[in-house]
Each structure stands twice: as C-alpha cells, then as structure tokens.
Amino acid sequence: MIPAPNVPRTEVSRRRFLKASAAFGAFAILPSRMLWGAGTPNEKVRLACIGIGNRGGANTRNIAQNEICEIVALCDVDLLGQHTAEVQANFPKARTFSDFRKLFDEMADQIDAVLISTPDHSHFSIAMLAMSLGKHVFVEKPLAHTFGQVERLMDLAERSGVVTQMGNQGHSGANYFQFKAWKDAGIIKDVTRITAHMNNKRRWHGWGKDVTAYPQQPVPEGMDWDLWMDYAPEHPHSDKLHPAEWRSWFDYGSGAFGDWGPHILDTCHEFLDLGLPTKITAVKREGANEFVFPQASTIKFAFPKRDKMPKCDVTWYDGTENIPEVEAEYGKLETDPATGKTARAPVEITKPGKIIYSKELVFQGGSHSDYLKILPYEKYMDMRRDLPRFPQKNSNHYLNFLRACKGEEQARSPFSVSGPLTQVFNLGCIAQRLGGNLKFSRSKKKITNNKLANALLDPAPRKGWEQYYAL
Predict the structure, then answer these.
(1) Residue 319 to residues 290, 291, 347, 390, 435: CA-CA distances in angstroms?
(2) Using CB atoms within 10 A as the burial measure, which of 61, 95, 363, 382 is most buried?
(3) 49-50-56 Cα angle (round to 5)
C-alpha cells in the first residue's frame, strides 16, 4: 500500500476521529459475517445516501426500489439546490444532513450501508470513514480520483471485511455473465488487442480548449463549498463546476475515460486478468489544456503476458470525430440493389463500446450490459448453435449489493475487482493531462520515467483532509 502522508490529523474533531478508529478496531477483529449483526433474512438494509443530486438521485431511486432497502438518511452539501429537491421530497422520513461527518456522528449506529454518489474527487474520504465504522459501501464509478486513494480503499476494504461495490451497473448485466461463460468455455481466449471508444459529445467540448483559469461565481445559499472541494485543490465556485460540470476538470473529475471506461472495459479487465499496464502512451490530445480534459484523445495501454494469456494492447478513443477504424473484413456482407454487387459494409461505430481482437475471433460489444457479438456476422451464424448459454435472470447491481450486505450473495464489483480497474483510468487520466509516454512498474506501482506523473499518482490532500489517509 502507498504509505500515508506524515501529517497531523486536523480539522475533524478528535472525538469523531477516535470514534471512527475505535469502531474500525472492533470490526477488524470480527469475522465479516458478523458485520450484519444478529439480523434475520427478513430485515431491511438501512441505507444512507450521500450525494443525492443528478446521478446520485438516480442511484437513490434505483436502489430504493428493492424491498430489502430502507433509506434512513440523505446527505448533500447543497440541500437547497433544485437538483436535490426531488429525492428529499421522495423520502420525507429520512433524516437530512449537509455534512457526511455529522451524519456518521449522529447515525452511525442506525445505518448498515452507505451509497456514495458524490463527484469523483470526494468518494475517497466518505468511503474510508464509512468502512472504518464497519459500514458496507456502494461507491459510484470511478472508485476514486487518484491511484493512491484506490490503494487505500482496497486495503481498508480487506481489513474491515465490509461488503463493497463500485457502481459500474453493467457488471451485473448480460455482458458480465456472457463474457464469463464465453471465457470459461474458451470462446474468448488469446486476446491481443482491444479498441474501446466513447465518441458522444461531452460537457467540456467547445469551451474546455479556451480555459485559462477557473471562473468564479457566488456560492449558492446554503451550500458548503469548502466541504464540496474535499481533499482536492481549492478553486472558486462556478456553474462550470457545480452541480454537473466537475467531471470536465482534472482536479475534480475523470473525463470521458473515467466516466465511461468502467462501463465498457470492466468485463475485459476482470476476465482477461489485465491488471495494471506497463506503458501508457498519449497518442492524441486534441485541444490539450492544463485545466480541462482534451477535446479528443487517444490513449494506448500495454499490458504484459499474464499466465497463459498473451500481451494485450488496449486503445481508448474519445472525442466526437475521433472514431476508431475497424478493418473492413469484419463488416457485414450487403448487396447493393442498384448494381447487384456484394461488399462488406463497415462495422458500425455509433455508440460507446469496444472491439476485442483475439488470435482466432473478433468480438464487438457496447457498454454497460450490452451483449457481445462475433464479427463478421457469417462467423457468428456458423458458431451460434455451439455457443455456451449463460444465466439470464440475475439480481441487478443494486440488489446484488443489498443481498451481499445480508450475506446472501457475493458482490460482483468489490473493491478487489473494481480497484485495479479504476487505477487503469487513473493512469489514463494522467496521460491525458501530461501527454507523452509513461512507463509503469507493476511491482512497485510507480511511474518510472516522469516525476510529475508519478507525483500525480498520490498527491497530498488539502489541509484538513489528511486523517482519511491514515485510517
């Protein structure tokens, strides 16, 4: 694990920190099956939702549809904002808080699990405190904002024994079970390269290239802007950050790669045992800017041999015009009615997805739970009767988490799985920010040829947020 900074624990009350430390110490010596306590299968999971606007609102509504979930607390730094009003109205019995630390101070013994849907840069502190108190955690993707934060989250998850889940919801969908079945049956094997792409328009497209400083606007009434910034560098409030634009900025978000990569590359990463790369290359950075993600980027990752699996290159494309090329031989045969001639139409790249190249077969997939298909279509038709079946009725990602909290299922995207996946995104974001070629040591977990890039793996937190690094 990357060592914690040698800094004093400040800004959070000694009582709160000691309470967290004591609770963690107690849970650390108990078997994980006892974290649920003396509950019965009929009991509900008492859930606190932290971050309830926009995506957080959708997550809260989705998880609340499950009968074994009871929303007992809502928390957001902007409770007066329009984007949080609907969730508050939908759960009038839940207690509301603007500060997650106060929530844990007052309700730690009344909650079993926490749903964290705050901006990327603030996942870490909340999840660390929750796990230190023995609470199961569901954290939206990407898991954390920096490589070092992910290291600590994985470590504490293992030590605490709590249930963990990252919110790459498709990891409980059809693609998960299909990919696993096809891999186990030897249909997917010897993968040598993967092309992943997300070419939809992003928030910063059109304005990000011209950013020379952070804009400034008054802080909305009732909002705690200092708490919103969490561990990250201080910058003024503006509507180019809150409530929905923070993903555009290096200091707070993870761009298109951190946003969509978890929905596109999750099954490839897990079932091909990709782990961490040895080299990350910024092939293209169109409209590169020191503050905001590029207007378009192509990032290439080199993964080494793993056991019996060959080396594998993964190339990521984003930007509305930065669409990857797919070899014509994999397109579908079509006949031109005007001429009667038959030719292969190009493979359609119309939505986020991936092309997976193995030594024998080529697969095309979308994002989230989309099925894989074999290219070209004629090859699929030849194989379709022999392709392995896979389960079609499974708990969705939210229900899987809740059942795991009750000891009824295993979480499908625990930090041990989603952590290394997120670290690939952390590395890619550094390449998008700095450019060039980055060499990475998998054993030392360091970037070996760029001191600034290596420092960005684990930047020091803002004063007042150091204590979460020491839990």
Answers:
(1) 17, 17, 19, 34, 16
(2) 363
(3) 80
User: Taking 80 as the threshold, does the pLDDT of residue 323 lie above it?
Assistant: yes
- Of 116, 122, 112, 113, the C-alpha closest to 55 is 116
Specify the CATH number for 172-386; select among 3.30.460, 2.60.40, 3.30.360, 3.40.50.
3.30.360
Q: How many CA atoms are closer than 13 Å to the CA of 9, on its beta-carbon side? A: 15
Please determine, for residue 161, whether its predicted confidence score (pLDDT) is greater than 70.
Answer: yes
Q: What gap in Å lies between CA 267 and CA 289, rounded to an integer?
A: 31
Distance (Å, whole) CA 267 – CA 369: 10
Break the chain into its structural domains and give their ranges. 14-169+396-411+462-470, 172-386
Token pair in block for residue 233: 């560098």
For residues 471 and 467, what is the distance between their CA atoms, to the nearest angstrom? 7
Task: Quote the percentage of the chain above a pLDDT of 90.
Answer: 87
Tokens of 327: 């070899």
What is the band of 306 on the pLDDT scale with cuts at 50, 70, 90? very high
HSE (CB half, 13 Å, CA atoms) of 233? 10
123-139 tens-digit pLDDT: 999 999 999 999 999 99
> Which two three-digit tokens encode residue 3?
């060592």
**Alpha carbons 61 and 57: distance in angstroms, whole number:** 6
Q: 39 versus 318: which is more confidently predicted? A: 318
Q: Is 49:59 a contact under the CB 8 Å cutoff?
A: yes
Rounded Cα–Cα distance for residues 330 and 315 (Å): 18
Do 14-169+396-411+462-470 and 172-386 fold alike per CATH? no
What mean pLDDT comes out for the span 363-385?
Answer: 96
Contact 267, 196 (CB under 8 A): no
Sign of CA dihedral 267, 271, 272, 275: positive
Per residue in 53-75, pLDDT tens? 999 999 999 999 999 999 999 99
Residue whose structure tokens are 């192509």: 298
- How many CB atoms sit inside 10 A of residue 438's CB? 24
| For residue 141, pLDDT beyond 50 | yes
Asked if 356 and 363 touch (Cβ cutoff 8 Å), the reply is: yes
What is residue 135's three-state secondary structure? coil
Neighbours of 394 (CB within 10 A): 16
Transcribe 144-166 into DSSP letters: -SSHHHHHHHHHHHHHH---EEE
| Sole residue written with tokens 């709590």 | 162
**How far apart, in Å, do the first and last CA atoms of the chain sit?**
12
